[in-house]
Design goal:
The protein has 3 helices and 2 strands; from the N terminus they run αββαα. It starts with a helix and ends with a helix. Helices cover 42% and strands 16% of the residues. The chain has one domain. α1 packs parallel to α2. The protein has a two-stranded antiparallel ribbon. The chain is an alpha+beta fold and 95 residues long. A hairpin with a 5-residue loop joins β1 and β2.
Amino acid sequence: MTNSDLGQAIKAFGQRCSNISTAYSFGKSVNRVLLWVVAISAKPGVEEPEAAFKYIGNVHGDEPVGRELLILLANWICDNYLKDPLETTLIKWLG
């Protein structure tokens, strides 16, 4: 997946899963490539004093496996929210 493909995938995910996520760019890398965030929560866009997990993928530009795994995880969460009781409980517990 190229950086352009990643941006398109993040935007598409944000639209498809807007009920539990917020997707946005928070700046650029030293190489002027957009840096993306997908925040998943039962209350997207609302900061809460609850537990949170931060997963970071693709810290080094030549190691894309981490970002691919995080995209798969985010899509699994979106696809299974309100279908899988364990996953639904996790999202509600995290906020």
